[in-house]
Design goal:
Immunoglobulin-like; about 25% helix; five-stranded antiparallel sheet
């Protein structure tokens, strides 16, 4: 629905998104979006996943989506060397959109590497991308993630950070959503009178300067004519 329009635009991002770290990796699974605005349409959401182990590859990433303020019409971007599955859940409170009421939404996406070689190797990180037809109309969206390594280790990125407390060891990915600006037109309208007044003042100043220059030129011409007539009289 909504996401199909943006899906083609973000296709292929993951194929070139692998990042190599020069030193030991000390990072978390995080979530990012260049379209992080409340209620935004066709927004690309990226789950950045680093490999934090020295001798194992990341071979699976499970991301659990919020269902209280859900992302609607989620589409998953194919990721080279990986396959994915999705799970949909019924919403406790349906969401009303221009297309009617939405009663279910994607609640889980799982990416699995086709082989250990295709997984994220030590020192690598990559983005796993989805497109949401509509973002939640809330200040943030909290996800939970499970990261599985080829040696069987599972890291649970599910811990919440209490207000004023230090960041937990395995924090859940949180996407902050900026409030959509609805005052741009009003701001522009308010600015217009000032712009018109400035233009008018500039025009008046230009007219005054032009008249002054014309008068000065006339005076110079009169003086020049007088001097010329005087010189002619002397020669005569």
């Amino acid at each position: 629905m909504f996401g199909a329009r943006r899906f083609a635009a973000v296709a292929g991002l993951s194929a070139t998104a692998v990042v190599l770290f020069a030193g030991p990796v000390s990072a978390h699974v995080t979530v990012h979006s260049d379209d992080a605005v409340r209620g935004a349409s066709d927004a690309a959401v990226m789950f950045r996943t680093p490999n934090e182990e020295d001798h194992a590859a990341t071979v699976k990433l499970q991301v659990f989506f919020p269902t209280d303020d859900p992302l609607l019409d989620v589409l998953v971007e194919p990721h080279a060397g990986w396959h994915f599955t999705t799970r949909t859940s019924n919403l406790a409170t349906p969401v009303t959109t221009d297309d009617g009421k939405i009663t279910s939404a994607v609640s889980e996406v799982t990416w699995t590497a086709d082989s250990t070689r295709d997984g994220l190797q030590p020192g690598e990180a990559d983005d796993f991308v989805v497109t949401a037809g509509q973002m939640p109309d809330s200040s943030s969206a909290t996800f939970r993630a499970l990261q599985t390594y080829s040696n069987g280790d599972v890291v649970k990125w599910i811990e919440s950070q209490a207000p004023g407390a230090d960041e937990p060891e395995h924090p859940a990915p949180v996407l902050q959503l900026a409030k959509a600006s609805g005052n741009e037109s009003a701001d522009n309208d308010e600015a217009m009178p000032g712009m018109v007044m400035t233009a008018a003042k500039s025009s008046s100043s230009s007219d005054g300067l032009g008249r002054g220059l014309a008068i000065a030129a006339l005076v110079v011409a009169v003086i020049a004519a007088a001097l010329g007539a005087r010189g002619l009289t002397r020669r005569t």
